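Hi all, long-time lurker, first post. I run a small reading group and we've been trying to get comfortable going from sequence to structure in the token notation. Rather than ask abstract questions, I figured I'd post a concrete chain and ask someone more experienced to write out its structure so we can walk through it together at our next meeting. Sequence below, copied exactly:
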Amino acid sequence: MTPSDFWEMTEAQLAETPLGISVSRDDFYSQPEWDVYRLNYNTTGGHRLFAWLSVPKEGDGPFPALLRMPDYASVHDIIYTPLRHRAVVMNATHRSQRNSDAAYRASYPGLLTDGLGDGESWVMLGAYADALRGLDALLRQDVAEIGPVALWGAGLGASLALSLASRRPRIAAVAADTPMPLGHPSAVDPALGYPLGEIGDYLRAHPNRRADVERTLGLLDPLGDASCVSAPVLLSAGRFDRGTCPLAFAEELAQALPDCDLRLYDGAAEGGGHIHAVARVAWLEEKLGVA
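-- Answer (accepted) --
Happy to help. Here is the structure in token form:
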């Protein structure tokens, strides 16, 4: 299966899957400035996904929106950001994360290599379908009218955000913090730490599967999609990162993206930490027109 085959199949499966959105207000997390809702919706393979949705109380919309893609972790919490006062904020999940794990619950570590080497059963392929479905749910929920949409993600979430932006021209901006290079040759470096170290562990245990692993990973090569990302991208990376976003990959990705502002920090997987978080909020405010 080629990347084109995978995405054609994924889009067809999503088109055949009813979205089935249900929305309920969460009284506990809602505040005087915004309402918080619990969203549930369907994705491919019979999975039911969960997301938090925060809607400002001031104004009638359409509201700019920030869609946060999930990182590689079992729990994905409500996002706390100043943008919640002026923009709709949605925290999506992918299959296997908490509240989206009724049909499948992953182990951590373990999700990254579950089915790896088989283009039909690698679980991570479903996470990329779930990213597309998250945007569908944001645009089609009925509690807020949506204007321009920005994406934000860290680690796996950054990779999901860039992949989503390459396939949906609706996206106005992408803030990608230390994206994971799934599909890139650097992801199979045996010297990497976790989470990418999972792949190295898998290859040490199954050296005869290397060709199949590399072929399956190649379905998600971020460099193959980079030229299709028309939105401006704020990309952050740590110079000493050896487990999430190696520096050489970040620099290569930045060159491949048509409109990229690369910020390098003297850190590791956390990238620029709090310093970059402040810069990211200001950048997103400008791109969404809420500065």
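A couple of things your group might point at:
Residues 123-140 form the longest helix (18 residues).
DSSP finds eight helices and nine strands in the chain.
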